[in-house]
Amino acid sequence: MGYSCCHFRITAGGIFCFPLFAPSLAARLQLSQSQLSMIVLAGMMGQYPFATLWGLVIDHFGPWTCSLSASAFFSLGFGLFSFTVRTASEGGFLNSQYYLLIFSFFLAGSGTVASYFSCLFSASKSFPDNTGLAAGIVTALFGLSPLFLSFIGNLFFANQIDGFDAPGYLIFLAVFSGSVNLLGAIGLRSVPRHDHYAIDTISPDTAPAIPQGGSEDSPLLQADRPAIQRETVLSLLKDVDFWLLGLIMLIVMGMSEMVISNIGTIVASFVHAQPEVDRPPTTAGSQIRMISLANTLSRLMTGPVADFTSPIPIRHHPGELVFHPKRAVTRVVFVMTPCFLLLLSFAWMAWGITSSNDLWILSLGTGAAYGMIWTVVPSLTEAIWGSRHVARNFGTISYAPFLGTPIFTLLYAAVSDHVRRSQSGQGPICRGKGCWTPTFMVCTAILCGRVRCLVFCGEDGGGACEWDAWRDRANRLVALRVAPL
Question: Could you list the residue ranges that cross the membrane (predicted)?
Answer without folding.
Answer: 36-57, 64-85, 97-121, 133-157, 169-188, 242-271, 332-352, 359-377, 397-415
